[in-house]
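Batch manifest line 323
LIGAND: iron/sulfur cluster
JOB: complex structure
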Amino acid sequence: MAPILEVQGLTAGFPSADGTARVLDGVEFAVEQGEILGIVGESGSGKTMTALSVLQLLPPSCRVEAGEILFRGNGLLALGGREMNAIRGEEISMIFQNPRSSLNPLFRVERTLAQVLRTHRGLKGAEARRASIELLVDVGLPDPERILRRYPHELSGGMCQRVMIAFALASNPKLLIADEPTTALDVTVQLQVIELLARLRREHGLTLVLITHNLSVVAELCDRVMVMYLGRIVEEGPVAEIFDHPRHPYTIGLLGSRPTLGDHGRLNAIPGSVPDLRERPGGCPFHPRCPHAKDVCAQERPAHEEVAPAHWTECHFWREVAA
Ligand code: SF4
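JOB STATUS: finished
ARTIFACT:
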């Protein structure tokens, strides 16, 4: 079966005084029907820009310079506003990091949910109410009648995120993109949201692109993971393979900087920070921060190499790094 989403050579950036500040640099991946793909990386790595480009929600000054995005075989970049509106929300839904700011504070949950159901499913009155209750039950909210009467400020963070997931599912989307859906929540609620997404995948065959900086969430939920750095995918593969046999120094750094029991607050952070997009290093973009960098790294961009079945990376020295 063809992938539900294919991104091919996507390159995008903001015009700047000395050229273009590139936010996506030849991004290329596919999402299969029913899979959960994790995208990880530090802030500024291009995770959210990748998601926004799929929905054509990039900031107005950000231009796509090259590439293609195919959703169920159809090119999205050539679509007009009306056609894209029909796909957004109806075929592809997105949930965001801060659910409370995504909900209209002036409307009760019932009113917003009814609007979504009317727009995308043509439901009104009692039918819309019945569907609203079903959705809230489906996302694990007890006493849905009471939740429908609530304003967003009367809900906890976890409840707000479940309501947002209900909104996102209201149109029966083929693909859900979740941008840091657990980041603003406390640890217990994070686990509940992860369990909810896992259950929705089991019960509804949800296809999900999950953007996160939390590798534990990826380990719990995802089938495959893509590691992004400065707008490029530097490593990708099945989750177990990447966690057990990371080949790129950046992935190794991310895995090593996870907090673990007994580390007494000391983390092995990756040295330095993601550079300004206008000062993108030549060669391998990670070389100024890489503990394995050699002269060639500053001059030549490494190839995208398959290092094990379905496991790809971009590093001149992946054999030595992994040894
Ligand atoms: Fe490090 Fe060089 Fe590999 Fe880049 S190519 S990750 S700088 S060793």
